[in-house]
Write a structure and sequence with these properties.
- The structure is a homotetramer.
- In chain A, α4 crosses α5 and α5 crosses α7.
- With about 200 residues, chain A is mostly helical.
- In chain A, about 35% of the residues are buried.
- The first copy, chain A, has 9 helices and no strands.
- Chains in contact: A-B, C-D.
- The first copy, chain A, binds a DNA duplex (21 and 21 nucleotides) through α3.
Amino acid sequence: MNSRVSSPKLRSILQQAAKLIYLKGYEGTSMQDIADACGMTKAGLYHHIATKEALLLSIMHFGMDLFEELVLDPVQDITDPLARLKQTMARNVELVTNDTTKEVTIILHEHSTLTGDAQKAINARKKVYVRFLETAFEQAMASGQIRKVNSTLAAFSFLGTVLWMYKWYRSDGALTPQQLADGIGDLFFKGLEPTP
Amino acid sequence: MNSRVSSPKLRSILQQAAKLIYLKGYEGTSMQDIADACGMTKAGLYHHIATKEALLLSIMHFGMDLFEELVLDPVQDITDPLARLKQTMARNVELVTNDTTKEVTIILHEHSTLTGDAQKAINARKKVYVRFLETAFEQAMASGQIRKVNSTLAAFSFLGTVLWMYKWYRSDGALTPQQLADGIGDLFFKGLEPTP
Amino acid sequence: MNSRVSSPKLRSILQQAAKLIYLKGYEGTSMQDIADACGMTKAGLYHHIATKEALLLSIMHFGMDLFEELVLDPVQDITDPLARLKQTMARNVELVTNDTTKEVTIILHEHSTLTGDAQKAINARKKVYVRFLETAFEQAMASGQIRKVNSTLAAFSFLGTVLWMYKWYRSDGALTPQQLADGIGDLFFKGLEPTP
Amino acid sequence: MNSRVSSPKLRSILQQAAKLIYLKGYEGTSMQDIADACGMTKAGLYHHIATKEALLLSIMHFGMDLFEELVLDPVQDITDPLARLKQTMARNVELVTNDTTKEVTIILHEHSTLTGDAQKAINARKKVYVRFLETAFEQAMASGQIRKVNSTLAAFSFLGTVLWMYKWYRSDGALTPQQLADGIGDLFFKGLEPTP
DNA sequence: TATGAATGAGGGTTCATTCAT
DNA sequence: TATGAATGAACCCTCATTCAT
């Protein structure tokens, strides 16, 4: 669970900040809040980051790193496209529901806070994921593992099903993460089975 | 498209504010912004609303009114549970993608901004929708129209697929709203068909 | 002594701010200082001005207005060029030494604080004064009232002699403003008399 | 062009700082700016200077050293008072217009930044220059080289003409420094010639 | 000497809100 | 109803300075 952030101090700042922004939103989180959470002063915080927006950008890249490390990378080598998709969903569900990693969903709700190049950079990384899914769907169609559908629609449907969960999933609820992942996967992939 | 807001002045304020908050977020939208958009002064605005949070609450209730009026109410009388679900999805997709109504999605992203009773009130109304879906799924299972699944999971999967769209759908994109609704419905409901 | 500033409130703010900036410099004067001097809060101050730089610009225009009103305008109709120059110097000395008007010299020392269009606007107004002097010198040469010299150099020499005074002149010193103006005028204009 | 600053390191710091303060003002120049210009860290800078104000004082003394070395010292031995004054003006003009020495004018515009003893010390050194000029004027009057005028006024008129130049002189302008010095000198000293 | 990290104080600015008119 | 003016609190950020290493 280690991504490309150099200093451990900075890393801990990113994690504290991510937690707060996850809970209260970017505009709703002040630099004072973040400094308090890190046990430093505001001025001390600015020794490690340039601006609040740069901090958000770092968090997003950090979240993207984490996502790629825990979801995309371990799945790249699965040659069977359908198996790859199922594994991806399972891992993504785990990421979004696990208390220690769910803050990565900041990537999702603060979608229009960044501006300019920063926004472009993050959007580019998100697009990679969408393309990854589309490709897998197309391969699965080509091999006859799933029926013919619009791959873009399939990708966004996949994402909606998985990413929406952070709005309602509670770790103390009735379903275990495993049941959750299985149930969601069953619902989603059954709809794609080839018609006899 | 008329919901339960008394004065037309207030109604127009809610709509302007909803548009802004949809675009820039609650914290990112100032009372000055809203006053400007309404062509009034800040002090003038305060003759119609009590506080900013009360304004948000009103908008959310307004959005919920709209949602119930355009999605839930017209569908209540459909006795066939599966037909009811399909109609619900079609109408919900329309609501979320139509430029004149998509602001209701504020209900979704400002989920943790309200506090106390206000938050409870809105959450209660959301829960009604979830229950409505669960019930429909259960009825459809009972009548054998769909296979046996966890109705809660089905409801949230339905919601995720539909509500997530506002993150990526662009009205100037390749798909018409109709194609979108059809495609999403096909993907989702195919997975629920009873196994032979 | 009335120039083109609309509201009397704003006018008093400009005067208080001018006094402070005159004494401590632009960067050395905080908005808090200015608010205190005006008997308001910082936030109250911002009801009347947009930014600190805009405030400085207003002060400079205000100073320029005052300058034109008290120095340039009353002198425009003097047809004799040499008499016009002498009157100009007398009035300018008065402006710079009088305790109630000397703050206009902010125009001078904060010459590089403004940026962009604001700077251009002020520089343009200064240039008008330089041109006014050059023209008068040229006319006086043409009519034989003074000897032939470089009119630009004469203008800047005139300005240096007069404007520099704010660095050393103290109203409680040995010389009365009148003696000062006479002495400076004598020194400067004697050097321009035509050689016999 | 060597003045009484001990370490070469310190000397280079003073020069870099002088350049910055000349361009942006004392309050407008941060210790970080200075450290950057010197290629050191802020903390490193503090091994050479005690405080920012002490740095300014050093720069002013450094500027005064330079001034005395390049203007006053070479002129002290000229016994003819009028020749001495003319030489002084020529050298002072050169100092103020030359790109490598014009930063000494900081001495002039940051006149009220220093406080207490530091301010007194610098003012005392400035006063020496004024006294030097006054004395020369008095001697020239006594010897009949110039007509009778108020020596203090003459000194400040001299200074105004010369020192004001940094506000408008551009080294890429129409006049060479030599023409400038000659022109200014002509204007100024012609006014002092004894009346026949 | 040099530095990375830290800090208290203060910078300019914006905020939601109030109130006399 | 409507508004211009005001405010206290908070905003993001920068400052000169210190100190352990």
